[in-house]
Amino acid sequence: MSFFKKLKEKITKQTDTVTEKFKDGLSKTRDSFVGAMNDLVKNYRSVDEEFFEELEELLISADVGVVTVMELIDELKDVARTRNIKSSEELQPVISEKLAELLQKSEEDGKVNVQESGMTVILFVGVNGVGKTTTIGKLANKFKQEGKSVLLAAGDTFRAGAIEQLEAWGERVGVDVIKQQSGSDPAAVMFDAVQAAKSRGVDVLLCDTAGRLQNKVNLMNELEKVKRVIEREVPGAPHEVLLVLDATTGQNAMNQAKTFGKATDVSGIVLTKLDGTAKGGIVLAIRHELDIPVKFVGLGEKVDDLQEFDAEQFVYGLFSEVLEEAETE
Amino acid sequence: MAFEGLAERLQSTLSKIKGKGKVTEADVKTMMREVRLALLEADVNFKVVKDFIASVKERAVGQEVLKSLTPGQQVIKVVNEELTKLMGGEQSKIAVAKKPPTVVMMVGLQGAGKTTTTGKLANHLRKSYNRKPLLVAADIYRPAAIKQLETLGSQLDMPVFSLGDQVSPVEIAKQAIEKAKEEHHDYVLVDTAGRLHIDESLMGELQQIKEAVNPDEILLVVDAMTGQDAVNVAESFNEQLDITGVVLTKLDGDTRGGAALSVKAVTNTPVKFAGMGEKLDALEPFHPDRMASRILGMGDVLTLIEKAQTTVDEEKARELEKKMRTADITFDDFLEQLAQVRNMGPLDELLGMMPGANKMKGLKNVQVDEKQIGHIEAIVRSMTKAEKENPTILNASRRKRIAKGSGTSIQEVNRLIKQFDEMKKMMKQMSGMTAKGKKKGKFKFPFM
Ligand SMILES: Nc1nc2c(ncn2[C@@H]2O[C@H](COP(=O)(O)OP(=O)(O)OP(=O)(O)O)[C@@H](O)[C@H]2O)c(=O)[nH]1
Ligand SMILES: Nc1nc2c(ncn2[C@@H]2O[C@H](COP(=O)(O)OP(=O)(O)OP(=O)(O)O)[C@@H](O)[C@H]2O)c(=O)[nH]1
Ligand SMILES: [Mg+2]
Ligand SMILES: [Mg+2]
Description:
The complex is a heterodimer of chains A (329) and B (448). By secondary structure, chain A is an alpha/beta fold. Chain A has helices at residues 3-13, 16-43, 49-61, 66-82, 88-103, 132-145, 162-173, 186-200, 217-233, 252-264, 282-290, 311-327; strands at residues 120-125, 150-155, 176-178, 204-209, 240-246, 268-272, 294-298, 306-308. The longest helix of chain A is centred in the N-terminal third of the chain and has 28 residues, at 16-43. The relative contact order of chain A is 0.18. With 448 residues, chain B is an alpha/beta fold. In chain B, 57% of the residues lie in helices and 9% in strands. Chain B contains 20 helices and 8 strands. Chain B has an 8-stranded mixed β-sheet, with helices on both faces. Chain B is globular and about 70 Å long. Chain B starts with a helix and ends in an 8-residue tail after the last helix. Mean pLDDT of chain B is 81; it is low at 344-368 and 432-448. The interface between A and B is large, with 50 and 53 residues. Bound molecules: guanosine-5'-triphosphate (2 copies) and magnesium ion (2 copies). One guanosine-5'-triphosphate sits between chains B (108, 110-116, 139, 142, 145, 193-194, 221, 249-250, 252, 275-278, 282) and A (128-129, 159, 211, 213). One magnesium ion binds next to helix 6 of chain A.
């Protein structure tokens, strides 16, 4: 079966609402991206240097990152040569295939490591203002709707109003928040939260942390300490360390992934603010270089604006028109 | 790391280009490839990069290579200068309304740093100008946004105006102004909710607030880590609101900050402040020149170039000496020497060492305030080639254009031209003296 047939089949099997929601959020992205792709095909019928230059620009404008883009282009040039592809229409499916391959290495990638029995602890980390607290609110709601009991840990004791913000989300979603005073030691808050979670026997503990830039050594040490407390108190925890990335971020997201990865052994990415015009292409480079999968995408500020990441849907969203063209062949 | 690889490549490309004399087209082409990569890797928007490369190419080809530089370094020097020029002059002043209170509106995407910057700005206004700002909580959407601003207010011991989250932001802003007038606040800082530039209804809300309170300053708060999308965001906010300035936040991180250039290029409004941390005193003036070399990521090379520049090129000096005697020095010469003067110490000090110089008429006016050198450079760079070579054609409309182009005032432009004239006159008088002084080896005139 061809790549596109498989992809199409998988997509249509998915519940439509999820796909629609996802496509909706991505429509802006898709329109501009696919529009540009189509222009590309129209403008350059033969696959030549100029075509590749234009393609390079397209990917760079999506924040994929110039190094990754150049590598991708080189690979595509090889493919074009060996398969003797002369027209851009022929090469187009190869391009989307390549991107999907990059994001989707196994079925397991997008899944969250939820414990069958016992408590699941998820730690959220990331730089300032990316959407950690909001994502926790959304995810708490998701787990709750699945019938799980959820507890939140107010690990951001630094930023003005951070505890109140998490409490507001807790109220909105109907879950409790474990907190201490503003200014207290976040590791101590985490200790309290883990104890409370254990004694209440909750299914999921979601741990908020203060935003911090990855070059602040003290703050990164503090984060390691927070993680150690969780490790010590709950064997096997944290079950996920999710790095929250803002889709509008450019190449610095790579540094973020590297440094947070080193400090806290990041297991997955939440890509937020994809409802804007930014394309979040840096996750391609991060997957390429660090092999960290994306698990969720944020598509707005409301409680249900969070979707599980599915690489095929992501690519489908980017290339849906292209895929449909291939389908009618 | 991707970037380190790039910096290395740039370095090795630099050293590969050998030889002296003029920068050739081939040199420029090789270097521009690397510069393009460096800028893209720094998140400068690809369209901005394209335009930039084109303009630099034009300027770099045929350049005379400074004795102590290689052609590759010479190209980087030009690139750095052009980048600095594009970033604009220093501009950390905030508007002052003729009739208080001055109204400032903070706008931007979600999580950019508006609320934090509102607190920092209030702190800055009080500390540096002894102002009495009123903070206004006009974000009724984000959970605990009001509480966040109130907490900052109490940390600063400053009042925060709020009507809760059930009153429209437009109404909140209006009533805040009344309150500020009653209580004699001279600044009103309105914190608005983060929003996407494509969110029509929320962008409409900002326009309504703008209409209602007629702000003197609309500051777009931009996260320094923003990627290619920065141009869309900035363009859109600017189109819909006519922003008056930009605050670049989170510059305490390790981002190259190319967004600064993208935003400047599409809005043509100055970056007024840099956010350098989460604390309330972490707001700094924005330094365009530092930003340029940060974006370029070529600290080492630039230091080298700087050093090379400080060593006065003998040949150049002789040439200039000749020019000075006949007093046909141009603004270009002036600019070039300015950089050297800066590295040699204060101009007045140097002049003070000249025998009899203190008796000379008009010398006072020649003194160059170190702080103003940046402005002077901007002014000269905004002149056309013809104007630089022949300052007599600088009529009123040309001067007006130059002031606008350099982000300075007509007065400053006039002052510089006057100083320049005086300097020329002075040079005529002094050419004899200079030669005498040189023979004795007592002092070195700065323009040599
Ligand atoms: N449009 C959009 N906005 C989002 C999304 N996720 C979060 N936000 C907004 O981004 C802003 C910052 O979100 P927070 O959850 O406070 O971010 P944070 O990472 O916890 O921030 P700090 O704790 O200050 O580091 C808020 O205004 C959120 O409403 C998203 O997916 N789309
Ligand atoms: N390191 C650093 N952090 C900053 C800076 N400016 C703001 N922040 C942090 O960035 C995060 C977001 O700042 P806010 O002031 O809440 O941003 P906002 O634009 O008001 O966010 P919304 O109201 O949700 O749109 C917070 O964690 C701040 O502490 C800065 O210059 N440096
Ligand atoms: Mg938070
Ligand atoms: Mg805010």
